[in-house]
Amino acid sequence: MAGALLLLLPFLFPSLFTPFSHALPSVFSEWNAPKPRHSRLLKSALQRQTPDEQLADLWRPLAEQQWKRCARSDSMSSLPEKSQGYIQVFLDGGLNQQRMGICDAVAVAKILNATLIIPHLEVNPVWQDSSTFMDIFDVDHFINVLKDDISIVRELPDEYFWSTREYYATAIRATRIKTAPVHASANWYIENVSPVLQSYGIAAIAPFSHRLAFDNMPEDIQRLRCKVNFQALVFVPHIRALGDALVTRLRYPPSTSEVDGTSYLRQVSDSKDKQGTGKFVVLHLRFDKDMAAHSACDFGGGKAEKLALAKYRQVIWQGRVLNSQFTDEELRSRGRCPLTPEEIGLLLAALGFDNSTRLYLASHKVYGGEARISTLRSLFPLMEDKKSLASSEERAQIKGKASLLAAVDYYVSMHSDIFISASPGNMHNAVVGHRTYENKKTIRPSMTLLGQLFLNKNLTWPEFQDAVVEGHKNRQGQLRLRKPQQSIYTYPAPDCMCNS
Question: Which residues of 339-429 form beta strands (DSSP E)?
Answer without folding.
Answer: 359-362, 383-384, 418-421
